[in-house]
Design goal:
The chain is α+β, with helices and mostly antiparallel strands and 344 residues long. Helices cover 18% and strands 24% of the residues.
Amino acid sequence: MTAVVESSHPSLTGVSLQLKNAPLWKQFNEHTTEMIITKSGRRMFPSLRISISGLDPDTRYFLILETRLSEGKRYKFSAGTWSGIGPADPQPHPSTRVYIHPDSPSPGSAWMAQDILFQKAKLTNNTLDRSGNLVLTSMHKYQPCIHIVKASDILAVDWSPSITFTFPETEFVAVTAYQNEKITELKINYNPFAKAFRENGQARTKRKIQAKQREEIRQDEENQSDDGSSSGDKSEENLSPTKDLCKDRSRVAGSNPLESDTPKTTGAKKVCIKGEDDSGISVGSVTPPIEESLILPPPPPYYPPAFWPFPPYFPYPAFYYPPPFYPPPPPLLDLRPTDYSIKH
């Protein structure tokens, strides 16, 4: 589809622009296209895929994408439609909604040789973004514009000849979460990065996928537990002789042999007869109890050692303590008036 020319310089009147993926944009535009904006930045889908003709092959050009506020309104999705609910919120500086194509500047022959993609442009709602993303406001409509600037230096872009194109079907609403279910289905069905959400042409969410995986894992664990309980008797018969060789430490230490095999004390340990088990694994080992730490007295109070050579600990006799220290009194000054006049 041919673009709409908004402004043009006389030297660029023969330049034309076409949107190569116009059919895809039209499908989204029928339900009002929505674009997700995040703090870190989210790529556009559908992205802009254009072709240029009519450029000078030897002249260098800049390609710039700008997202303009299409209407001065704030929108709300209700009853399946978007409607304005009031004036637009204050917008950041227009320079934060400009994206320069990474191949700029390039000669006209390079721009016309193949289709041009803006798939690396990202949308964000972070007003402090410094990554070159397009800063937008949620629940507002924006219109992408393509500027072709005849310049070879970034500093000369502002006053160089330029031409501006727009495609009405590329208008979109910036949102933090999809509002229209039809837009969600279109994104899942046509976005190549949304394969995990598709199954036989129908949309699925990540939560459904994860819930199904958890259910399968739970069923597998139940089947394994059932198999283990049915063969429990057979497995006990084939156990290692280590179980029979282990005895309670309390009985080995000389406890009453008439007592039951189950130890009455909770701290009883089982030990294996050394040399008759080659498994190399200690059975029923328990960490010995830790002795209670001694309660130490609190540290003595600090006393300056410059006044007395002995620290004033409590066990010392009273004569070890230094005498009280009193600072010397200040010198007395004669403040009486003095007559320095010389008498003749």
